[in-house]
Amino acid sequence: MPSLPDTDAARAPQQRESAAVVSVREVEHTYGGKGRGATPVTALGPVSLEIPAGEFLVLVGPSGCGKSTLLRLIAGFERASSGEVEVFGERPEPGNQAGIVFQQPRLFPWRTVGDNVGLALKYAGVPRAERAERTAGLLERVGLADTADRRVWQISGGQQQRVAIARALAGGKRLLLLDEPFAALDALTRERLQEDLRTVSAETGTTSVFVTHSVDEAVFLGTRTVVLSARPGQVALDLPIGLPRSGTGPDELRGLPEYAALRAEIGTAVRDAAR
Ligand SMILES: Nc1ncnc2c1ncn2[C@@H]1O[C@H](COP(=O)(O)OP(=O)(O)OP(=O)(O)O)[C@@H](O)[C@H]1O
């Protein structure tokens, strides 16, 4: 096999593969305090985290410990008060590096499901001629084949959240940030979406950061769980989740002794963090 020329261009892809997708270094964040009378709230830190490509990192911790703040810093919605956040080696800018899914789907309710996904493809620069096929493929991936022509207000909350995930995937970003995306759903719908997200993430290998209050969700979805302590959140536990990513059904997975052990360990860490 001919050897590759030893140039920066030839080395770059390999270097990108090995570099962390998200680097959080000694980050602290304080809200407010600049205006007269405002009391500053130190929400986070100091926190340091490296998230490699393909990781599905779940952030858990007591209410108000700074989980959403950390996600917003990674998304570029906020700038850290101190320390450094890098995503793919750059300062994060909203919409540039990551697809984002919020607790509420935030779709255009009067438009069709297909339009909502198609618009994301348009903004991602996908030519018009390819959009219908790509939309159909994305909707199929999230379990919504044949719904492209329905209006958003005509589908259920769970289906709307599936559209939001399809829309986030449509951007073609290699990083997905999800802030309690299933919190507003009923238990059964939530379980189904967890299963499908787990499958989609294993298939696409998209790096993900997922915020939740649910210890079970952390074990089920994650390849790694980070527990933050009470505000200002710091890393209280950083635990790899070495469960099989494919070939094991959800019930079988939840029945594994390792599953119960991980749940117990993370549950204890969250309870300790809340004290
Ligand atoms: N824009 C803001 N201005 C002032 N304080 C804020 C702002 N956003 C969040 N905070 C405060 O920062 C702290 C951390 O909030 P954050 O939403 O990051 O926590 P969280 O862990 O995601 O909470 P929850 O689990 O309840 O959603 C909280 O005390 C919150 O009230």
Automatic annotation (TrEMBL):
Alphabetically sorted, this entry's keywords are: ATP-binding, Nucleotide-binding, Transport
Q: Which Gene3D superfamilies match?
A: P-loop containing nucleotide triphosphate hydrolases (3.40.50.300)
Top-rank taxon of the source lineage equals Bacteria
Coiled coil regions, renumbered to chain: none
Report the Pfam families cross-referenced here. ABC_tran
Question: Where in the numbering of this chain does the ABC transporter domain appear?
Answer: 22-266
- Cite the PANTHER family for this sequence: ALIPHATIC SULFONATES IMPORT ATP-BINDING PROTEIN SSUB 2, TAURINE IMPORT ATP-BINDING PROTEIN-RELATED
Q: What is this protein called?
A: ABC transporter ATP-binding protein
Q: What is the lineage of its organism?
A: Bacteria, Bacillati, Actinomycetota, Actinomycetes, Kitasatosporales
